[in-house]
Amino acid sequence: MPFIPVPDGALAVVSYVKGTESFSNSFWFRFPDFTYADQEALAAVMDAEWATRWRNNAHSACSYIHTTVYDMRSEAAPIVVANANQGPGVGTGEVLPINVALVVSLYTGARGKTGRGRHYLSGFSESQIANGNFTTSLKNTVLSWYASWRALVDATNWAWCVCSKYEGGVPRAEGLLRVVFDYQIRSLIPGSQRRRLDRP
Q1: Which of 31, 136, 141, 161 gives a 20 to 30 Å CA spacing to 9?
Q2: φ, ψ for residue 178 (rounded to 5)?
Q3: Which residue intervals of the chain are DSSP H helices?
Q4: What is the number of alpha carbons within 13 Å of residue 99 lying toward its C-beta?
Q5: For residue 110, what pLDDT is reported?
Q6: Contacts for 97-101: CB closer than 8 Å, 24+ residues apart
């Protein structure tokens, strides 16, 4: 697949492991004319705020590894890696499969699928599910975690976005970033992130 540049865009990939299985969450951001130092600041916030809150809610069998922030303005642009908060979660009991996820829906001002996004949050414990659904307590904790994390991202002047690289199935010449104005956990029914099945 050819590289599609994203003007003023950076992609942060947060990486985790459960035993030999790896999984991740991806986040798009926009900052006009950002510098390498701005990229480092974003990586530091993701590593400190996002990773710490994930670890405080994840099972001890799952670990945060690092955050990689890619400058997506060109294929050879700089990459920053932050891992100061590397380590396992704290949960006990049975660990859930990594494809079993709490789904956070992301909304921008645009209509249609290209104006929306999703985060599949994994690494949780069986105790965080009751009667087949994630608990309301976990939902409220995650929403609070998003609010705190986003406030710190905003303070670095990065705008959290959804990136559209295709229109009608056709690749765009450049990726289009739209700012996230709302996020919701619409259902406590676990979602399945199929790409996480049978991953090495």
Answers
A1: 141
A2: -125, 130
A3: 36-45, 51-57, 136-155
A4: 8
A5: 81
A6: 98/18, 98/21, 98/23, 98/62, 98/122, 98/123, 98/193, 98/196, 98/199, 99/192, 99/193, 99/194, 99/196, 99/197, 100/124, 100/190, 100/191, 100/192, 101/190, 101/191, 101/192, 101/193, 101/196
- Residue of 167, 192, 200, 151 whose CA lies nearest to 20: 200
In sign, the C-alpha dihedral spanning 187, 188, 190, 195 is positive
Q: Could you tell me which of 43, 196, 34 has the C-alpha nearest to residue 121?
A: 196
Using the structure block, give the residue that is written with the tokens 């660990």.
95
Does pTM surpass 0.90? yes
For residue 197, pLDDT over 70 is answered with no
Please report which residue ranges of 67-174 form alpha helices under DSSP H. 136-155
56 vs 82: CA distance, rounded Å: 18
pLDDT of residue 127: 96
Query: Across the strands, what pairs with 102?
Result: 121
Tokens of 87: 């380590």
Cβ neighbours for 43, distance < 8 A, ≥ 6 positions apart: 12, 67, 68, 69, 80, 81, 82
